[in-house]
Design goal:
With 411 residues, this protein is mostly beta strands. It has helices spanning 15-18, 86-93, 169-172, 178-182, 350-356; strands spanning 26-32, 43-48, 53-59, 95-104, 108-116, 125-129, 135-138, 152-155, 160-163, 189-194, 199-205, 213-218, 226-231, 236-243, 246-254, 271-276, 282-287, 292-297, 305-311, 333-335, 341-345, 363-369, 375-384, 394-400. The strands form 6 sheets. The chain has a 4-stranded antiparallel β-sheet with strand order 3-2-1-24, with no helix packed on it. A 4-stranded antiparallel β-sheet has the order 4-5-6-7, with helices on one face. Residues 1-10 have low confidence and may be disordered.
């Protein structure tokens, strides 16, 4: 079963089948006005993949949502089917700050929740009915829950779900303060859950070199018992794997921090997003502060080999590989199912955008990826989110209409 309910034609039965997918004709882009000074709702943009132009926008009903992550949709003109207000979610789950969304067994949509009603940390999940979108309640089945939450991924054949940690909403929402890290308001742990029983079974602490583990990516092989997670603040990549009946994690890549004038501490790369190609051969990740996008051969997951690197903005002042000057740094990334086209945006979170890149000019660009490694920016594809008739917006997550390398989960 792929990552859907009734397996529409755009979903695939295996990674091998997904690799044969036709090129995407259009893509979806979460766009926000929060932090730009524009008093207007966020919107989901539909982008023509050939022309590199926005052809449709679906605005949200409210101002200030700050669109972030979302699930899969294949309509050329998305429309809002249902709105669930925060009060209902709090009443039925006690949680706030929805983040990652996945379809799950039993006609459920599960969403990781980052905060409680007061903006403190929380480590649980909300469940929606996949057909009616009614809020059912909490996903977890009692017992201990982690103090923090962020991303999650699951492996049906192995009966396991893994979740990561960001920080307390009351800490990260105003902007980044290093004192909050030393005060323990940001995370460093991975959590492994029994998928069928919906209970936490094991926690792995990555320690001081694994601070703020964000995006989690299992290998696509449905029998795999390993994957990767990027620790943003420590700028380290970790391989998690089955170990003696439990789970462990090893650091496999470290991005060195760089001394920069005016900074009170060496500037970390800040690994904010990563993904694995559908054939499990290549790992990609972005260093939002340094400004580089990296590609590694992970045919041997324990020993990644650097095969490509592009400079796409950043604080270090490196010459751009895009053929134009870029503001901000590479942040969210998305890869086509055939592994040949990588889409990149540059907005992280409104207060962090304004803190580290004041006056951020947002964009979406495309990178062509060689079948045996290597990357090159497609200079004919560039979507400028700054110079717009309605004022600037910021681009965050990208989805492709036939599925992509972070939507498909195989059973």
């Amino acid at each position: 079963m792929s990552h859907g309910h009734d397996k529409p034609a755009s979903f695939y039965g295996s990674p091998q089948e997904a690799l044969q997918a036709p090129p995407e004709e259009f893509l979806y882009l979460a766009c926000l006005h929060e932090g730009t000074g524009v008093d207007a709702p966020d919107f989901v943009a539909v982008v023509d993949a050939e022309r590199g132009e926005i052809v449709h926008e679906t605005p949200m009903p409210n101002v200030g949502d700050e669109l972030h992550h979302y699930g899969w949709n294949r309509s050329r003109r998305p429309r809002i089917e249902k709105v669930i207000e925060p009060e209902e979610i709090v009443a039925k789950t006690g949680y706030t700050r929805p983040h990652t969304v996945h379809c799950m067994p039993g006609d459920n949509v599960v969403v990781s929740m980052l905060g409680d009603a007061d903006g403190n940390g929380a480590g649980g999940f909300a469940v929606l009915d996949a057909k009616t979108f009614e809020v059912k309640g909490r996903w977890e089945n009692g017992g201990e829950t982690p103090p923090l939450n962020y991303d999650f991924w699951y492996q049906p054949r192995k009966n396991v779900l893994i979740s990561s940690e960001f920080g307390e909403p009351n800490a990260y929402e105003p902007g980044f303060d290093l004192a909050d890290v030393t005060a323990g308001r940001y995370g460093s742990r991975l959590h492994f859950w029994n998928l069928e029983q919906r209970k936490l079974e094991q926690t792995v602490d990555l320690g001081e070199t694994g601070l703020i583990p964000l995006e989690v990516r299992w290998l696509h092989d449905p029998d795999a018992e390993q994957g990767f997670v990027g620790a943003a603040l420590s700028s380290t990549m970790w391989r998690f794997r089955r170990e003696n009946g439990g789970w462990g994690a090893d650091q496999v890549i470290a991005v060195e921090s760089v001394e920069l004038e005016g900074w009170p501490f060496p500037v970390p790369g800040l690994i904010t997003d990563l993904l694995v190609s559908m054939d499990d051969r290549f790992l990609y990740f972005s260093n939002w502060l340094h400004g580089d996008l990296r590609q590694y051969d992970v045919s041997d997951p324990a020993n990644p080999k650097l095969t490509g690197r592009l400079w796409l903005g950043g604080l270090l002042g490196k010459p751009s590989d895009a053929g134009r000057e870029l503001n901000g740094g590479p942040q969210m990334i998305q890869l086509s199912l055939d592994g040949r086209r990588l889409y990149v945006t540059n907005s992280l979170y409104s207060t962090w955008d304004n803190q580290f890149y004041p006056g951020l000019r947002s964009w979406l660009l495309r990178v062509n990826c060689g079948p045996d490694g290597g990357m090159e920016v497609d200079r004919d594809f560039f979507v400028d989110l700054h110079d717009r008739p309605g004022g600037p917006a910021r681009a965050h997550e990208v989805r492709l209409q036939n599925g992509d390398c972070t939507t498909e989960i195989f059973q």
